[in-house]
Amino acid sequence: EAQVTQNPRYLITVTGKKLTVTCSQNMNHEYMSWYRQDPGLGLRQIYYSMNVEVTDKGDVPEGYKVSRKEKRNFPLILESPSPNQTSLYFCASSWAGGRNNEQFFGPGTRLTVL
Amino acid sequence: AQSVTQPDIHITVSEGASLELRCNYSYGATPYLFWYVQSPGQGLQLLLKYFSGDTLVQGIKGFEAEFKRSQSSFNLRKPSVHWSDAAEYFCAVGAGGGNKLTFGTGTQLKVEL
Q1: SS3 at position A96
Q2: pLDDT computed for residue B81 by the predictor
Q3: Is residue A56 predicted with pLDDT exceeding 80?
Q4: Which one of A18, A91, B26, B90 has the lowest number of neighbouring Cβ atoms within 10 Å?
Q5: Which phi-psi region, left, alpha or beta, contains residue B85 (left: φ > 0; alpha: ψ -120 to 50)?
Q6: Which residues pair with A93 in a beta bridge?
Q7: What is the DSSP track for B62-103?
């Protein structure tokens, strides 16, 4: 089944404790993105990747890191999480860039930073 | 910069009634428009998309949307709502580099039985 998977689905952590949220897609997509969803703000792009070893900032990159060492994986790293990073995070992938390519979303990771 | 406005935060309709969710966009070039649905605890599922051509597009689950360039709108409609349609609906415009989607703030749909 074609899908985007994220782990963990739920995570509660404390301020400053490094964490990684994994994302994997099995569709051989080139493009992958991370979004965060906050009430009243919709979804905002954090980082995106156009291919292996190629990443760039989205609209809200502060406090986040990403890497793309393999085509299928795109982990999101919070090196020193803070409470304002409490949010619902989505990973997405698509065949290619360009405005018209449909993005496929993972199930989301709900992160709480105490 | 591109933006999407969904003026209705919450909408309640009775099962079997018709539905229209509003979406207005701002974008300097030809917009590529999407509607996604998010059921509780789920990811986002694409309902339909508009790239070009016929301004009335059909999607999954009986939804349709009409692109009106003169009004900068892309409203989502369904003639008869089912209880399972209760969810949050997001309108988005494809813009910028990196395949970014710019989302509206969402409309929460409640269906009364």
Answers
A1: coil
A2: 97
A3: yes
A4: A18
A5: alpha
A6: A32, A104
A7: G-EEEEEGGGTEEEEEESS--GGG-EEEEEEEE-SSTT-EEE
**DSSP β-bridge partners for residue B57:** B65
* Average pLDDT per consecutive 10 residues, chain B (113 residues; last block may be shorter): 92 97 89 92 90 91 95 97 96 76 94 95
Q: How many CB pairs under 8 A join A and B?
A: 69
Query: Which of B3, B8, B93, B101 to mutate against chain A (most A CBs within 10 Å)?
Result: B101
How confident is the model over A17-35, as a mean pLDDT?
95
User: What letter represents residue B113's amino acid?
Assistant: L
What is the rounded distance in angstroms from the CA atom of residue B11 to the CA atom of residue B28? 30
Query: What is residue A96's predicted lDDT score, i.e. its pLDDT?
Result: 77
* pLDDT tens column, A80-96: 999 999 999 999 999 87
Q: Which of A42, A101, A106 sits opposite B43 (nearest CB)?
A: A106
Token pair in block for residue B55: 């301004």
Write down the pLDDT at residue B98: 58
Longest dimension (CA), chain B: 43
d(CA B53, CA A111): 41
Q: Distance between CA atoms of A61 and A46, rounded to whole angstroms?
A: 5
